[in-house]
Design a protein that fits this description.
With 307 residues, the chain is α+β, with helices and mostly antiparallel strands. The chain contains 9 helices and 12 strands. The mean pLDDT is 92.
């Protein structure tokens, strides 16, 4: 058993989909995707304390969460799989906007798994945590894996990629979009041609015609196939995209929305923060909108908490 009693100020970072292509659909109706996920420094914060009575209790420090949220489900799944009699108090300071397509709930669940693995003294290797994470949601394994990734399948196939450091302006209008509605739209393009991550095919010397490099992904390769459907459903998504396009010359929706982002150069970042370098963006946004100027992360801050 671990001698630790509590862990504080644990980050649960968001992700952006640098591109998102729908390349097919399985017989069971689930969509086959290709995407690239990058971690950013806009985070929720968790505090976790060990309980010896086996109870799992969540305490909301920010916006209220559903009674049985993904963090509690993650804690319960780990508790049952490990056969431990220990419990935990989970405090969540929710700073990421909900319904944004930034993976906030999945990231919270991953941080919960990593924290309890340490707090309960389980010492599970990453592979074992990943298998459990896959039962909780498509994005949870990415955050447990802890590295920016080229993503395939239904989100379960992750190939780590090294992306150059970057800054992104991210804004989220008040509207929230239902992921199921976006994926269920008859207008959704479902036959984008698949690509191959350059260098991912062992023994292949000549680059394939459909190969894409990490550098190309970072520079704006591809598109988000969900974006046209989201814009048709939600004028606020279009307005957010237009705002970033006008200011930074590029914009794209992340996930199924409604958050959107733009790549921001160093000089543009200085202007966007008034020359202070502060990590903040969006003071001129309409009422109810939220935004930040974010930095990419090379890896999850808690990545070393699993072997």
């Amino acid at each position: 058993m671990s001698g630790l009693r509590a862990l504080y100020e644990l980050p649960a970072p968001a992700k952006l989909n640098l591109f998102l292509h729908v390349v097919g659909r399985r017989a069971d109706g689930l969509h086959l995707l290709q995407s690239a996920f990058v971690l950013i420094d806009w985070c929720d914060t968790l505090h976790v304390a060990r309980r010896d009575d086996g109870r799992l209790l969540r305490h909301d420090l920010g916006m209220p969460l559903p009674a049985d949220d993904l963090c509690l489900r993650a804690a319960r799944a780990l508790q049952q799989a490990a056969g431990t009699g220990l419990g935990a108090d989970l405090w969540i300071d929710k700073r990421l906007p909900a319904g944004a397509g930034m993976g906030g709930g999945s990231s919270d669940a991953a941080t919960t798994l990593l924290a309890l693995n340490r707090l309960w003294g389980l010492h599970w290797p990453r592979a074992r945590l990943l298998a459990l994470a896959a039962t909780l949601g498509a994005d949870v394994p990415f955050f447990v894996g802890g590295h920016n990734a080229f993503v395939e399948g239904i989100g379960e196939r992750l190939t780590p990629i090294d992306l150059p450091s970057a800054r992104y302006a991210v804004i989220k209008p008040p509207a929230a979009l239902a992921t199921a509605e976006i994926f269920g739209s008859p207008a959704l393009v479902r036959d984008t041609a698949p690509v191959i991550l350059a260098g991912s095919l062992a023994g292949t010397d000549a680059p394939a015609a459909n190969a894409v490099t990490a550098a190309a992904i970072a520079a704006g390769f591809g598109r988000n196939d969900l974006q046209p459907v989201a814009e048709a459903c939600c004028p606020e998504v279009s307005a957010a995209l237009q705002r970033l396009q006008a200011r930074f010359g590029n914009s794209r929706m992340t996930g199924s929305g409604s958050a959107v982002f733009a790549r921001v150069g160093m000089d543009e970042a200085t202007r966007a923060t008034g020359g202070t370098g502060a990590i903040g963006f969006g003071g001129d946004l309409p009422a109810g909108w939220v935004g930040r100027l974010c930095r990419s992360l090379a890896s999850h801050p808690l990545r070393d908490w699993a072997g």
